Amino acid sequence: MIKNILKAIKAYTGTFKLINKLGLWKYFGVPMAISFLTAVLIGFSAWGLSDNLGAFISKIWFWEWGAETFRTISDFIGALIIIALGIILYRHIVMALSAPFMSPVSEKIEKHLFGTDHSHRNTSNAEQLWRGVRINVRNLIMELLLTIPIILIGFIPVIGIISSVLLFLVQSYYAGFGNMDYTLERHFKYSESIQFVKRNRGLAIGNGIVFMLMLLIPVVGIILVLPLSVTAASTETLRVLDNAKSLQKTI
Fold first, then answer.
1. What does each C-alpha distance from 22 to 119, 126, 239 come to in angstroms?
2. Is 101 in contact with 30 (CB distance < 8 Å)?
């Protein structure tokens, strides 16, 4: 799996060149706008809600001594929870709404890499949007089910340090999952795509690691994260699919 993680990360190195060569920037206009506006909306919401959540958490401290200190800690914890949940919501909203624009990008990359002799499932924009919503709602639920226990582990001294790493890896996996599905939707049905990503967790995690790190770059990261991550995910996913088809032909 580590080998696949490194492959997925390395795939980002040629993304700018490939996007420019195939003239793909025109497909990213609307998704980049969706990404920016969603980030701003969630950012302002998180700013307003963090104090309220902090006040709620601080109520579990019944003693007068240390109450002020615990309130400060509660505000910090509340902000972390809001940020974690905000990033999760941001990713899934953007990925779901961008599906009709990202699928053509993946298709053009496939045509460039392997020609036109690959058979695909024919899907409309509406079907691509519904597929994106369905996949991302499913992933959102699964991610929350994993995230909440991990956040709770974070309250445990020493062991809590591990929770940050686990939380990052979980978010990376589902970010990569979404990016890979723009390609998989042409090749597999819903359940088949889920099994494909499970078999190739390393690719999903590696792609998602860079995705998550790019979100740390103010403004520019939010705008460029989708074009670069989708392009990188498409190239690696397509190579895995092509290798699998080549293997089947030799059997």
1. 21, 25, 18
2. yes
**Within the chain, what is the greatest distance between any pair of CA atoms?**
74
> Which of 183, 186, 47 has the alpha carbon at shortest distance from 106?
183
Low-confidence ranges of the chain (pLDDT < 70): 50-68, 70-72, 75, 116-123, 155, 157, 160, 246-251
Nearest to 104, CA basis, from 230, 243, 240: 230
Are 174 and 194 a contacting pair, CB within 8 Å? Answer: no
Residue of 83, 57, 81 lying closest to 71 (CA atoms): 57
* Helices vs. strands in the chain: H and E counts, helices first: 9, 0
Residues 6+ apart with CB under 8 A from 227: 15, 19, 24, 25, 28, 31, 32
Count of all residues that appear for the chain in the document: 251
- Prediction pTM value: 0.83
The residue written with tokens 């790190």 in the block is 213
Q: How far is CA 70 from CA 61, 62, 140, 217, 251, in A?
A: 7, 10, 31, 31, 64
The confidence score (pLDDT) of residue 209 equals 96
* Per-residue pLDDT at 89: 86
